[in-house]
Amino acid sequence: MRINRYLASCGLGSRRSVEELVRDARVTVDGERVRGLSVQVTEHSVVEVDGKRVLPPLGGRVVLFHKPINVMTTRDDPQGRKTIYHLLPESFQRLVYAGRLDYPSRGLVVLTDDGELLHRLTHPRWDHPKRYVVELDAPLSPQDVARIRDGGIVFPGELPLKPCGIWEKGRIVTLELREGRYRQIRRMMEVLDRDVLDLCRVGVGQWTLDGLEAGQWRELDTAEIDPMRISLDLPPRASSPGKHSGPRHRSPRTPG
After folding, report:
1. How far is CA 252 from CA 5, 89, 99, 215, 217, in A?
2. Is 144 noted as a catalytic residue in this protein?
């Protein structure tokens, strides 16, 4: 199909509106920048917008994965480091991650082949909460906590951060973010002169790490997916015949 039709099917807008993405040189197909609307896309094409892969709402599978530390949230790493796809079964290789965790961080990574859901999980317009438990080298001061809670931290050349939910217990801090900037928590703590010793994402919206050890995964069923879809203004899959609802699994595989 033509590139504009493909992008529209991914939930990025009407065919007319997604043409602007192509004209602004924001779209690549198999690593090549798209220069015109006549480009054809097949089911095997890798289509990215602003460097993030986009997919149409085909199978509707959702997998929760507990990323261990020192594993890349990417499909290929130029330095040859282990990626999340090395730890996932072959049947999950087409799934796309909805939000990265950096190399030394661990915790919940959501993967899906549902393009509409992927778009809304990663686009800033739908600011669903993401929860993290962070161990610091020293407790935060009351002033630091207030800056985080009020959105008082500013990165050079960027807009102020949104306010964050924060709960502290000594050096252990739980944060609830509604945006996902590059290395946001680590950069926040650098501003506050704190070192992050451990960073774990424990929840994305209604989905949590509960029951998953590092390196393990679980596929969600329709009853677990629909509350998130509804919260993101998408229709529940239960009302869409033909959608896949796979069994729940847990992988015994752990990183070696």
Report:
1. 40, 11, 24, 8, 9
2. no
- For residues 139 and 195, the answer to whether their CB atoms sit within 8 Å is no
Helix, coil or strand: residue 92: helix
Question: How many domains does the chain divide into?
Answer: 2
CB neighbours of 142 closer than 8 A, spacing ≥ 6? Answer: none
Q: Is residue 247 part of a domain?
A: no
Catalytic residue among 77, 102, 198, 221: 102
The answer to whether position 79 is within a domain reads no
> Does residue 46 form part of some domain?
yes
For the stretch 122-156, pLDDT in tens is 887 777 899 999 999 999 999 999 999 999 899 99
Residue 70 corresponds to which tokens in the numbers above?
């020192």
Would residue 11 count as lying in a domain?
A: yes
pLDDT in tens, 51-91: 888 877 556 899 999 999 999 999 888 999 999 999 999 98
Task: Residue 25: give the domain boundaries.
Answer: 1-54
Domain CATH code at residue 44: 3.10.290.10
Q: What is the dihedral of CA 169, 170, 171, 174, to 10 degrees?
A: 20
Tell me the whole-structure pTM to 2 decimals: 0.74
